[in-house]
Amino acid sequence: xxxxxxxxxxxxxxxxxxxxxxxxxxxxxxxxxxxxxxxxxxxxxxxxxxxxxxxxxxxxxxxxxxxxxxxxxxxxxxxxxxxxxxxxxxxxxxxxxxxxxxxxxxxxxxxxxxxxxxxxxxxxxxxxxxxxxxxxxxxxxxxxxxxxxxxxxxxxxxxxxxxxxxxxxxxxxxxxxxxxxxxxxxxxxxxxxxxxxxxxxxxxxxxxxxxxxxxxxxxxxxxxxxxxxxxxx
Length: 233
What we know:
- It is a single chain.
- By secondary structure, this protein is α/β, with parallel strands linked by helices.
- The chain has helices spanning 2-5, 17-26, 70-80, 99-110, 126-130, 147-154, 167-170, 185-197, 199-216, 219-232, and strands at 12-14, 32-34, 57-61, 88-92, 117-121, 135-138, 159-162, 178-180.
- The radius of gyration is 19 Å and the shape is globular.
- The mean pLDDT is 95.
């Protein structure tokens, strides 16, 4: 049905590069462009007070789904604690109360991480939550262009992220953050330790990433692209 209806479309906006390729090869439209996600700071009042020591918090904004690979992150963070016991990990995202969710809680309990790893569920005050954190992390197996990555950048956090989906388009230079191989807890641990021990490098990465996102992945930039296409139709 979509292929049939696409004959009447003037233009298609695709929100990640895979969908752009799919639209160009599958649908009957000559005009297709990539329009990346953009993040907007919410102004909700702080309602979620994070546990742990200020200045030593790592945050992961991701619903508890297998694609997000929290278990890989937990393995890496467990290794981080051997040399950095004061740091804490904060998981923010919807809990679907399924087998995957259960495996996360079991790992935390079996490895006695209850005082170092905290799960908050879905929260509306994400901008306020990020202001309480020191490092943003995503350990996904697969992605499109994760909104969490853009939110980390807008919040001024240095980011460690797996090189999946369109994450490399956001963090295309080494000074914008650390892109690592997916499903590799050793590399993830190493990247986290590097930011923990090198404050100047982490601050520089945060500044560079924020500038990149404000210039290329902001609401204003996206509206300009949309209006430009509208004017041609």
